[in-house]
Structures are given as C-alpha cells and as structure tokens.
Amino acid sequence: MNTMDKRPTIIDVARRAGVSKSTVSLVLQNSPQVRDETRAQVREAMAEIGYVYNRAAANLRSAGAGLIGLVINDLRNPFFTEFATSLQMSLSARGYAAVVANTDEDPVLQAQVIGAMIEHGVSAMILSPAYGDEAASFDALVRAGIPAMQVLRKVDERTDLFPFAAPDYPEGGRIATEHLIGRGAKRIAFVGGLEGRAVTQERMAGYQATLERKGMVPKVISGRATRAFGREAAHRLARDCPDVDAVICFNDQVALGMLSGCAEIGRNVGDELKIVGFDDIEEAAHAWPPLSSVRCDVDGFGRAIADTILAWLEDGKVPAPETRTPVTLVERGSSGG
Question: Rounded to two decimals, what is the model's pTM?
C-alpha cells in the first residue's frame, strides 16, 4: 500500500476526537455552532493523525455538484457498460454527476475507490460489486452514512442497509430452457459462470428447476464468463458431449464465443446446436447467426436505478430490500428462430 492510501480522512479525525463526522465538518468550516472545547478537541485530533484539510476540494463539494458514485465490477463487459451509460445519462438529466470506477473484479481496488469517492463527498453510491472481502467496502459505507445500493449482484446480505436490485435471473433461465425444449432440444447444457457465485446460481436456477420438472439431466460446464471460454466450450462440447443439442450460456459474451467456436469446427448453429445467451446486449442482434438471448432491458434497468437512488436521496424513500425486474426472451436464429 502506498502512502496516498494511508492519508487520514475526516472519518479518521471524527473517530480520534470521539465526535461525529458532521461535527468535524463544522469545525473545518469555522462554524460558530461548535463549542470551543469540542473545536480544540477536533483540532488536536487533526494534528495527532496528520490530517490536512483540502479547502479547494471542499469548496468544489459544497458547490452543489451532486456527485453520485458508480462502482462497476467489469466495464469491459458490454452488459455493464450499457448499464453504466444508461444510469449516468439518467443522473445527468436530473442534474447529478456520476463518478464512475471500474474495479476489474478486484475487491481491494473496490475498497480503495469507495474510500476515495467517500472522501470526495459523493452523496450516494451504486455498486455492481466484486466478490471477496465485502467488509472492506461495505463497512466503509456504513460509517459514511450515505445511501448505497447493490445492483446486478448481491454480495452483502444486509439488504436493509444496502438494498439490492437485479433482473429476475431465475425466471430468465426458466424461459430460456422452456424455449429450447419447445424447439425439440433433448439434452441442454448450461455453459459459463464461475462455480459457487450467487449470480451463477441464480442464472442456473430456472434451468435446473425446469429440467428437474421435465425429468431431464443437467450438464453444467463452469468457467469464466468470456468469449474465449465460450469458444473453447464449443470445441469441448463437440468433442466430449456430442449428445448436447442445445446450450444456455451464462451471458452473451460466452454465447458469442460459442458462435465463433462452432463456426471454426463447422457446426451448424440453430439446427445442429441451438444457443441462447443471457442479457441481450446490443451486439446479440448483429451476430451471425443472430443470437437468441434473455433480455434484461439493461437500459430501462439503469433508468429505474437512477430514479430509485434519487428518490432515496431527495425524498428519503428507502428502496425495498430486494427488487426484481421483468425479463423476456428474444428469439433469433441461434436457437432456430
């Protein structure tokens, strides 16, 4: 950890002085509301821990910029990019600025950017969180006392403090599986998604329940949710599981990779192997063959999250602990549509 990471914050001052963060802020603003004894106590704490007040940054914060922190686990994935863009545009339309950070699935980096955003005075936080060391990120948000939501992934179970919103992933898995069975599929595999992660379990849940109800045997091939893995899985399925005639992919990235892999080995997609993706990113419609996908309406989801966080921030309307938004299936050529 470098020295910048250890720079004392207003929260550290408050803890050392035994007062609230707002009291420290009042001292820094030379407010007459603070008793002389408390003021001296805060100044002493600042000196002890080496806190330096950045007045220029404070003036910027107090100018009413209305900053909202947006922390995303993987902006390289078009699904999350589309969500972040929709959310940022919706916040801008309401007069707020979004401060966006990509954590690249790194919980240590996530904790750092959350700490930096809190220091820079964000009014609220929206996280599509990375997995691992949840306390480092979420406990800092508890101390900061700002509205904070988990979206698309739930990693902290305290949904009373950090409400969770996501598309109805289990329903998406169910309708995709029903669709493939209706298209005559006899052996359906689920491909992609790291084993043990909640979001993988959710996207698989409808698939597993539907197969169990139909008396069919599941086939799961776990792995990173990337095109490279999808391409490799297309080769592996053809070699090791020739009886698999349909696939539901964890996301569209895996599905697009499978389309490439099938093209390489000359396997006919839509007839010989039916493929359904998940998310319906913009590229799905422009692939060849066009990719069937579970549509999560990520653009509408982003707009809804903007409305939700601002209703909390401006009107004190706390979101429900958990919100699920509807999903639909878009049928295209990859599943014989």
Answer: 0.78
